[in-house]
C-alpha cells in the first residue's frame, strides 16, 4: 500500500516467467500490436504513437520531455510537487529554458495562473502532473488547461504515472498531446516498460527536429522504426516486461476502464472515510483527492518514520513518507490496481491505528470509528 | 541460437515471477548489495561503481558514453562494426566530437592504428567493442589498447554486451575504466537491467562534470544516490529484472566464471568445427573468433533470409542475418549462456544443413561431416 510498485496480479507474475522469444520474432511483433492497442484503450486515445518505453516511468517521462523540447524551447512546468521538478531538470538537459506556474505543494494548478504564465512567457511546451504522487493531489480542469496551451500553440505533456488505469484520464477527449505513465502503479505491473502516447502533432514536432534528441536510447524518431510499421531493430526490447504489460492491460480491458476507475474511487473512498473517521486528516482538499495515492497528515507528536517501520516490521505492510516540501508531514498510502481491494483497506486501517497507538504519544486514534466508516463506505 | 536474447534458465524465469517489494524496501536494498557483488565477480573487478542500469543494453551503453563524454570532449570510436556507430551517435548527442580508428567490418582493431589515432587526435575517451555482435569478432590485445589510451590520459570504455559471462574479460587486470553489458546474451537473463562498471577515475570525471549529463534517467551522479551508500530514491528500479539478474549471476558464480568461459569455447568450438566441416566458412579469422557469436558466411546462391525463415518455421530455431556492411553476407548464430549446450549445437547443425539443402540451389553441405566434426570437438 505504498506509492508503488503495487501488488502484481498472479496472471501478470505468470506472464513474467514466459520463456523469451527474440525481439524481432514474428510472434513478438504480433504481441507488440496487441500491447499498443491495449495501451490506446487505457489512455483513451486513437494515437498511432502509443508504445511502451524500455525503462521505468522516468524513462517514459524523459522520452516525452527530451524529444518534445528542442534546444532553445521554453517549457512551462508546475511547482506544486516533486515531479514538476523532475520535468524541469529533464527540460533543461534537453537544452530548454524553464519557466514556472506556481502552486503550493498539496494544491492543483489554477487555470488562471496557467493562462497568466502563458501570456507572460509564451512557452512551447506545457507539462503538468495529472496525479501527483508526492502530494496525493489530482489535477482537475484538464480540458481547460489544454485549451489554454493550444490557444498559444504549445504542446501539452501530462504525467499520468499515478492515474493511468486507476483514475479517469482521457487523452483524446481532453486534447492532451503527450502522456506518459509507469506500469507499477494503477496497472499493477512490474516496472520496466512504461506507457507513452503522442498525437500526430507532437510526433511531427519530434520527427521535424533539426538536431536529434539528446538521448539515443530514448529518441522517438529512432523508436519509430521499431514500434512503427517497419519493426526494424533499434534496441532489444525488455521482452518479458512487455509480456507482463500485455497481461496487465488485458486485465484492465477485461474489467473495463470506467469500471476500474469506479473501483478505485469506491475502495479508496472507503480508505479515506476510515482514515478521517479515525481522526486523521487528508492532505488534499476533497475536490482534489487522488484515490490512487492518499496523503494523510502525520499528527503532531508522531514520528512518521517510526510508524512506517512499525508497519513493515509487524504487519509486512508498506506505506511511505513524504517527499520534498512534505517530508515528515504526510504518509503516502497507495490504493492502486490489484492492491485496491477492500481487504487491503481494512488491513491498512487496523494496522495503522495500532502503529499510531504503539507510539505511546499523547495522540490516539479511534480505530473502531475508522473501521465502521470504512464498512459504511464499502456498503458492507 | 540468435544473437540474443538467449534461452533463460528455469531458475531465472522463476525469479521473474517473485512478488514485488518496494524499490526502497530493506529486503530489496540488501539484494542490491548482492547483485553488485555478483556483477563485480562477473566483470572481474573491485570497482565500487558496479550497478545494473534500468534499461536494456543500449541504456547501459548510453549511461557510459553520455556520462563520460562532456560537451567539447573528443571520443575515439571504431568503425569495424555496427556498435561503434551507435557509440558515435551517443557521443555526438552528449556534445562530443567523434574521431575514428578504422578497421573493416569483420576485423579487430590494430593497436598500431589506435596509437596513431591517439597521436593524431588526442581523444579524451576511447571506446571499443570487445565482442562485436554484428561481425562475430573478438577484440584481442585489450591491455595493449588500454595502455595506449592511458599514456594519453584518456579513459577507456569497453562494450562487453556479448562477452560478459561467456568470453574472457578482466576489467581490472586489463585496466578498462568503464565497461557495460546486456543481460540477455551470455548471462541468459531477460533484458531490462544492464550491467555497468566504472572505476574511481571514471566516476570522478562523472562527478566533477560542470554541466550535468544530458539524460536525467541515465545520470550516474544521480544514480550514485540510489546505488551508493545512501540508497535514496532516484527512480523506481525494475525490481523484477533485478531479481532475475541476481539469479542469473548466481548461476555464473556457481559455475565459476573461468569454467563458464571454457564452456563457451568448448561448445561453440564444436559448433564452429561442425559448420566448417559442413563446408561453410566462418566470417572471422580463427584468431578473432568470438565463441558467443558465430558469423557464418552465406554461400553464393543462397538467400540468407529464406534459410532464417525456414529454420524458424520448421525447427522453431532462431538465427539472425547480418547487419550493416554484412547484411545478406552472414548468418549470426549465438552460442550464449544457457543456450551454449551440446544438444543445441547438434540441433542447429542438422537443422541448418537441412535448411540449406531445402533451398534447392546448386549449393549443398556435408551434414554428416559436420556432425562428426562436432562430436569429435565435444570429445564424444
TrEMBL record, chains A, B:
**Which co-factors does it depend on?**
pyridoxal 5'-phosphate
Q: Which UniProt keywords apply?
A: Aminotransferase, Pyridoxal phosphate, Transferase
Record's keyword annotation contains Acetylation: no
Q: Does the keyword Signal apply?
A: no
Where would I find the Aminotransferase class V domain in this sequence?
Answer: 22-280
Provide any one GO MF term from the record: transaminase activity
* Sections of the chain in a coiled coil: none
Q: Which family does it belong to?
A: Belongs to the class-V pyridoxal-phosphate-dependent aminotransferase family.
Tell me the protein's name. Answer: Pyridoxal-phosphate-dependent aminotransferase family protein
Instruction: Give the organism, scientific name.
Output: Halobium salinum
Phylogenetic classification of the source organism? Archaea, Methanobacteriati, Methanobacteriota, Stenosarchaea group, Halobacteria
